[in-house]
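Narrative summary of target 7.
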Amino acid sequence: MIKKALASLVLGFLVGYLYHINNFVIDNLETITLYVLIFIVGVGIGMDENLLKYFKSLSLNTLIAPMSSILGTLTFSILISYVLGFSPKIVLSIVAGFGWYTFTGSVLFKLLGAEIGILGFLSNLFRELLTMILSPILGKKLGASAIIASGGATSVDTTLPFVIRYSGIENALPSIISGTLLTILAAFLVPFFASL
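Modeled conformation, tokenized:
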């Protein structure tokens, strides 16, 4: 396990170094990897014989995860801002990324400065990483909605494989729906809270 972690770390440094050599190749690799992931999930969903029946069974329960994510994230952030003595505006603008760290970090960097941009980036990155690490426990103890809500906007892409692995392929579509809704919402809420 330690050897794998060290190998991943070394590989990460090499990729980072190569990134400075050729931005174009790395940027395209990220995009291609995301498209391949979405394609594989799409094929998996499309091969399901019960797909039509599944679409018909979707109801308002599909919105439980995104609504839980929105209400939980925003409510807790307001409470924690008072406990820690931070401005609610700043905390809300950071957490409104719902895990979308690249967007949140860059928008907050432009609107509120480098420190808040870095906080926005790291906070949302840690949300994604914690979702990945805790997915086995969340899936076993609380079910698919907990993994999807925890992943926030990332449940449409990077945490989607964890939703599938620890709660089943049948939860892929609710995960994609939730992640898409939160991604759209983050695009509006982050700049909105930052400009208050």
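The two ends are 46 Å apart (CA to CA).
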